[in-house]
Every structure is written in C-alpha cells, then in structure tokens.
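Every protein is a chain of amino acids, and every chain bends into a shape of its own. The fold becomes a row of whole numbers, each drawn from a learned catalogue of backbone shapes. The protein below has been through that process, and both of its lines are reproduced in full.
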Amino acid sequence: MQGIDVFFAVLSVIVAACAASYLWIFLFRPAAFRFSLSELDALVWYKRVPGKIYFGFAMFGLGFMFFKAIESALWWMPETWTVWIDGRYRPVSWPIAVAIGFSAVNFVASKMEEAAQMISATKTET
C-alpha cells in the first residue's frame, strides 16, 4: 500500500506544478500562452501528446482548486443534507462543488485563452 501512496503524492505534486506553470505562463507571458486543444491538435504527434497530458493535468489542478474553494464556500449547508454516493453518505455540498468547480474550468480556460490572444495581439514578446 505504500507504493500507491507515493504514486499519488508524486502525481499530486505534478498536477499542482502543471496548474501553477499554466497560470504563470498566462499571467507573466501571455504572448507565449498557446494551450488550447485546437492549437495542440495542429502539432505533430510527438509534440501533441505531452502537450495534451500537460493541459489535462493543468485543467485537473485548476478544477480541483475551484472544487475546494466552492466546497469551503458552502460551509453553511447543514451536515444532515446528504446524498448516497459510492456506498456512503456525502454532504450535498460535495457534488455541488464538484459540478460547479470542474465545469468552471472550461469557462475560465476559454476566457484565459481569449484574453491571452488579445494581449499578445497588442503587445510584442520581450
């Protein structure tokens, strides 16, 4: 069981690093921000596959950040409001946070891409 714990610990660090670098590239180098599925599909396969893995990890990391933020924002929901999921009762706030958090990533990523394209069109890369 130790091996799987180490695997998930390493995977969580990789996901966090991908999400952090995704945000860093957007905030500090918007002209170099080229992470959309349409732009990745245009690349050759040996460049496309690592790009899609990176993009998937970054989106999962951002989605998890949104999920935890929304879950903590729903603190006011009583613990007696539960739903049966995977053989146990979970608070209602949990599936709500999952649905909103991971759905928000699609919206935020598309707006980040639009903003990066507008910024890079008006500014030259230094």
